[in-house]
Structure formats: structure tokens, C-alpha cells
User: Which sequence fits this backbone?
């Protein structure tokens, strides 16, 4: 039996020349405690987790950075909550200083009800940050044209949403995700909307290189168990994709041959059906 | 007068004093500072004087998506 570890790429995602040991990226938002976060990080097997930056509250300073250090994961700062390119660029620069990383998950939100990206501000921020030397991973709409434009300005990956942040609706437009994957020359990370393990498997089967997941894990009743489930789903999706699925067809095709089938007809006029 | 994280205060202390009041040393991890929209590198924290009307942002890491 061939070794799973020997399958190329199952457990490796490369972004901007840096190899991550897992195709699952974990968002740290929404965990009820740092203990639950630590357990989920371990169960997920992730190599990199997102964090946000906010004005400091001395009374509420926790040990998030220590927990992430102890877990041995890298930090991917985000620009969550920014509504303009200007705010996102400043937040990214603050994050670079705070975490000594030039990687940033770029989020520029259009409104608070949908939390959908503002395409115009997002593209402007991406271009400015790339010019400033950042490795930019933009959270983007599931728009193949915008994804291409983000790649064109130098983003190191594109991260289309499956559905709105925290909605758990899964991948609402798999066709668009496929179009993005087909054209992308950089890794595609499905970001936002995952509700459960099967959504993550679908993302990878559609051709995504990775999945970024926060709420589906952090707000699950048992976050560590869901982290494990989604990690396995990412692996299952990868194996299924590389195994070469059968084509979809609109008619059945028997998997058992007709040859040698028994024939219980009692007379030449007997159709063999039950009489009613 | 300066504005620290959106709140006005009457005096104009140095950045080092502000950080000390926030319980942050010059080596505080996961912290960053901007003054008037420009990030201040950590190496410049100790010697930075603020001017009247400076807008200071001091941020640190929180859990987030």
C-alpha cells in the first residue's frame, strides 16, 4: 500500500516561496478562551493563524502572543474591520512592526451587515502594500476578474469567500470558485463561509490550494473536534482531487456486468414481473 | 494636548511615558505605535517626543479572523 506521506502536496502549501505544513489556515477569532484556541490549533495541525490588531486595552491584555508561541505556529496579521485602503495600509504597517512579519491578510470591508469586501478599496490597498514590500493575501469576493486583478498587482495568493464571514453557508457559488482557480497563477485559499467539514472538502476538490477557517471551528460546540474534522476534510478533499474523480453523467452506468445474469422466466410469455 | 487611541488628554508626554502608563515596556511584544498616521519603529520609541495635537495609536494583538 502506498504511503500517504509520499503523495506530493497533500501536506504542503507554498505561498511566496514559504512552505506551510498544512493546507488549513486557522483564524483565531471567536474562541471563547485561549485554552480552547490552543486545543483547536493542535487539533487542526495548522502552521499559521490569523490575529487582529486593536487599540490597546491595558486592563484586557491577554497572553495571546504567548499561546501562539507555545503552539509553534506562525502569525498572519489581518486588517479586519478596516473600511478604507488608508486604514488597511496603516493597520498592515502596524502589524508588520508588531509581529515582525511582512505577511498580511488584507481585508477591506464594504459594510458591516454583509462584511463583503470593498473591491475598489481592496485593490488600491493591495497595490500599495505590494509596492511597500508586503506579502499580501487578500480576502476577496468570489469574483474571477477581481481575483485576477489582485494577482496582477502582485498579491501572493487570493482568498475568495465561499459566503459571507461567519455565515456558515458554505460555498454559495462553486462555479465562480472554479473560474478563479482555473485562471489563478498564485495559490487560492477559500476564506470565509465554511460551516462544516464537507464545505472544506468541497473547496479543495474545486481546486483551492487551502482553506482559511475561523468561525466554523471557534464557534462550534466542540472547537477542537471540529478543527480535527475540517483538517481531515481538507486532506480528504486533496486526496479525492488528486485521485481523479469520475465524470458526472445524467444516466446511470452499472458497475456490475450483465454477463452471466440468472433468468427465472417460467414460460415464453412470462415477463417475469410481479402481477398486481 | 494629544489624542491617544481616540481620546484627548490635556498634557503632551513623551511616547516612553505614555507606554509606561499603559504598562508597556520598550520591549513589549506584539505591540505597535503610530503617530499622525505613520508607524514609529520600535527603535525610535525611547527618544520620541510628541507635539501638541499629536494623534497617537498604540495597538496590540487580539484574536481575530
Assistant:
Amino acid at each position: 500500500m502506498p504511503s500517504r506521506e509520499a503523495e506530493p502536496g497533500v501536506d504542503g502549501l507554498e505561498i511566496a516561496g514559504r512552505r506551510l505544513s498544512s493546507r488549513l489556515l486557522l483564524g483565531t477569532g471567536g474562541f471563547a478562551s485561549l485554552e480552547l484556541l490552543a486545543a483547536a490549533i493542535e487539533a487542526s495541525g495548522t502552521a499559521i493563524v490569523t490575529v487582529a490588531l486593536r487599540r490597546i486595552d491595558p486592563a484586557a491584555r491577554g497572553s495571546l502572543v504567548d499561546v501562539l508561541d507555545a503552539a509553534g505556529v506562525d502569525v498572519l496579521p489581518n486588517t479586519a474591520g478596516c473600511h478604507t485602503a488608508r486604514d488597511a495600509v496603516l493597520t498592515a504597517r502596524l502589524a508588520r512592526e508588531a509581529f515582525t512579519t511582512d505577511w498580511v491578510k488584507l481585508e477591506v470591508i464594504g459594510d458591516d451587515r454583509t462584511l463583503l469586501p470593498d473591491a475598489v478599496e481592496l485593490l488600491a490597498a493591495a497595490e500599495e502594500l505590494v509596492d511597500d514590500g508586503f506579502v499580501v493575501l487578500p480576502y476577496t469576493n468570489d469574483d474571477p476578474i477581481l481575483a485576477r486583478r489582485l494577482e496582477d498587482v502582485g498579491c501572493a495568493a487570493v482568498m475568495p469567500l465561499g459566503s459571507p464571514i461567519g455565515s456558515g453557508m458554505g460555498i454559495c457559488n462553486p462555479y465562480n470558485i472554479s473560474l478563479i482557480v482555473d485562471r489563478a497563477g498564485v495559490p487560492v485559499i477559500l476564506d470565509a463561509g465554511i460551516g462544516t467539514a464537507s464545505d472544506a472538502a468541497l473547496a479543495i476538490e474545486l481546486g483551492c490550494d487551502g482553506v482559511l477557517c475561523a468561525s466554523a471551528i471557534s464557534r462550534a460546540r466542540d472547537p477542537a473536534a471540529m478543527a480535527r474534522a475540517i483538517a481531515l476534510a481538507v486532506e480528504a478533499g486533496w486526496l479525492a482531487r488528486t485521485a481523479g474523480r469520475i465524470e458526472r453523467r445524467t444516466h446511470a452506468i452499472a458497475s456490475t456486468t450483465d454477463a452471466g445474469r440468472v433468468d427465472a422466466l417460467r414460460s415464453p410469455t412470462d415477463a417475469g414481473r410481479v402481477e398486481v | 494636548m494629544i489624542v491617544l487611541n481616540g481620546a484627548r488628554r490635556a498634557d503632551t508626554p513623551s511616547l516612553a511615558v505614555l507606554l509606561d502608563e499603559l504598562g508597556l515596556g520598550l520591549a513589549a511584544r506584539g505591540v505597535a505605535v503610530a503617530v499622525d498616521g505613520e508607524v514609529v519603529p520600535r527603535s525610535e520609541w525611547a527618544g520620541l517626543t510628541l507635539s501638541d495635537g499629536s494623534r497617537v495609536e498604540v495597538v496590540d494583538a487580539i484574536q481575530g479572523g
Remarks:
- Chain A touches chain B at residues 27-31, 37, 50-56, 58, 61, 64-65, 75, 77-78, 80, 90, 93-99, 107, 165, 192, 214-215 (CB under 8 Å).
- Strands of chain A lie at 13-15, 18-20, 24-27, 48-55, 74-77, 103-106, 135-140, 159-160, 189-191, 210-213.
